[in-house]
């Protein structure tokens, strides 16, 4: 449970930092994301989850 909360905390901190950086630059956000950006994000998320859950390199991270 503690690991899950840590991931959620880190994601919230990353999102807040990103939103603050965008706000400070004064650039407007688009109303809708481009399809290519959505697809790229989906593929990157899938590959990262596979790496973290299956690769032998990340086995120390998954060890209890």
Task: Please explain how this structure is put together.
With 64 residues, the chain is an all-alpha fold. The protein is 75% helix and 0% strand.
Topology:
Elements: H1 2-25, H2 35-54, H3 59-62
Return the average pLDDT rounded to an integer.
Answer: 86
For the termini, the CA-CA separation is 13 Å
Q: Report the sheet-strand fraction.
A: under 5%
Q: What count of helical segments does DSSP give?
A: 3
**Main sheet makeup:** none
Helix and strand element order: HHH
Radius of gyration of CA atoms, rounded to a whole number: 16 Å
Structural class: mainly alpha
| Total number of beta strands | 0
Low-confidence stretches: none
Task: Please tell me what the overall shape is.
Answer: flat
Which range best describes the helical content: under 10%, 10-25%, 25-40%, 40-55%, 55-70% or over 70%? over 70%
Question: What distinguishing features does this structure have?
Answer:
single chain, 64 residues, mainly alpha, 3 helices
Brief characterization of the structure:
The chain has helices spanning 2-25, 35-54, 59-62. It is mainly α and 64 residues long.
């Amino acid at each position: 449970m503690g690991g899950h909360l840590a991931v959620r905390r880190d994601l919230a901190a990353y999102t807040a930092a990103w939103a603050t950086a965008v706000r400070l630059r004064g650039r407007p956000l688009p109303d809708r994301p481009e399809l290519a950006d959505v697809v790229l994000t989906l593929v990157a998320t899938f590959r990262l989850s596979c790496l973290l859950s299956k690769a032998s390199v990340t086995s120390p991270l998954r060890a209890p």
